[in-house]
Design the sequence.
């Protein structure tokens, strides 16, 4: 899906690699992917690559980059290091050596060095180390792209926005198809679906200056402003409402979801109600249900969920005939305890959590009745 976004942004030679996708293209492509991709977390610009055997090899590689030509000395910076099977013993030390190499190039060029800001740097330099190869990137995104800027009220353990957008694509949801999240939390699925329906580019909600490429010396403000205008002009005229609904058992979560929807400018388009999925009737005759239910880490929570899942399965069979029901969970007990046949399970990660996206199609009408009558009786 990320490669599809890259191609839609005008990329060439888009290729899926471990942990992402690589591509080539113009700066317009870079801007467009940052502006319009719903899947990307960051867009990194490769500026150097080479083999290494020790810390000094990486220092020399970083020193080959003409950093003063890429950004002004007044910009604050931070170096990030990711290593996989690297022989180097200290991530902290190699981080310092890369920073030293950058600052040494600035001292040679202008007699000054940029300052380091570990909280909100203007320029982010990423070093990726494998067992034998070092690659340096400049971050063109700044803050992660899943931070759309839509949410002001958050709840614990939310699904990130780009993961929510990817899940909506995986389940085959399209604008206009009724969508219901009965465990909506802070409203991430609702907000993503609404903005997809309206054709909103996710990057448009960011404030000016938020993107990393805006801090680089070659930033083309005229090109960027033109792309933003085109994206804004493509936004669909908002209807009076959208066939998107949310609910949550927690009154606090419902309040937060409504706050976030209002802040995102779509509070009048999406209805959120308070109540238990087991009791609430579905908001439409048929559609797609997507939910990220809780999962238990402690014994008491595990026991509560073991009692909840069978009731959930019964509620779906009783009230949701004709609905495609999808649940995203790290709880491996869910498919067994819910008592429904899983048509599809898709492995996904939510941060470090190994999760599954489970599909339970609820058979409607005569087919459903036929399956129930054919079931063996219990003694």
Sequence:
């Amino acid at each position: 899906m990320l490669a599809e976004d890259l191609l839609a942004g005008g990329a060439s030679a888009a290729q899926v690699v471990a942990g992402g996708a690589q591509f080539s293209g113009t700066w317009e492509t870079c801007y467009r992917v940052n502006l319009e991709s719903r899947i990307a977390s960051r867009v990194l610009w490769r500026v150097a690559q080479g083999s290494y055997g020790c810390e000094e090899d990486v220092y020399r590689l970083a020193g080959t980059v003409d950093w003063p030509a890429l950004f002004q000395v007044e910009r604050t910076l931070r170096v990030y290091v990711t290593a996989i099977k690297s022989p180097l013993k200290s991530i902290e030390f190699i981080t310092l050596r890369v920073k030293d190499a950058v600052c040494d190039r600035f001292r040679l060029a202008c007699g000054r060095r940029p300052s380091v800001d570990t909280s909100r740097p203007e320029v982010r330099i990423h070093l990726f180390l494998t067992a034998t190869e070092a690659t340096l990137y400049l971050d063109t995104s700044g803050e992660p792209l899943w931070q759309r800027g839509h949410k002001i009220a958050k709840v614990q353990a939310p699904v990130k926005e780009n993961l929510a957008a990817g899940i909506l694509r995986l389940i085959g949801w399209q604008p206009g198809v009724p969508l219901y999240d009965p465990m909506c939390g802070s409203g991430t699925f609702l907000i993503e679906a609404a903005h997809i329906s309206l054709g909103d580019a996710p990057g448009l909600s960011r404030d000016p200056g938020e993107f990393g490429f805006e801090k680089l010396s070659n930033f083309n403000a005229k090109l960027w402003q033109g792309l933003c205008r085109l994206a804004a002009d493509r936004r669909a005229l908002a209807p009076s409402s959208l066939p998107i609904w949310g609910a949550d058992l927690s009154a606090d979560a419902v309040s937060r979801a409504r706050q976030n929807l209002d802040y995102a400018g779509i509070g009048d388009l999406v209805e959120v109600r308070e109540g238990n999925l087991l009791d609430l009737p579905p908001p439409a005759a048929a559609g797609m249900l997507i939910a990220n239910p809780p999962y238990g880490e402690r014994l008491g929570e595990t026991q509560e969920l073991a009692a909840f899942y069978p009731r959930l399965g019964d509620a779906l069979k009783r009230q949701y005939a004709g609905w495609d029901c999808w649940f995203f969970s790290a709880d491996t007990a869910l498919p067994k305890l819910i008592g429904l046949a899983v048509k599809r399970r898709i492995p996904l990660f939510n941060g470090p959590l190994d999760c599954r996206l489970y599909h339970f199609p609820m058979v409607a009408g005569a087919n459903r009745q036929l399956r129930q009558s054919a079931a063996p009786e219990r003694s």
The domain at 2-139 is CATH 3.30.2130.30 (VC0802-like). Residues 366-379 have pLDDT under 50 and may be disordered. DSSP finds twelve helices and 13 strands in the chain. The chain has two domains: 2-139, 161-200+237-365.
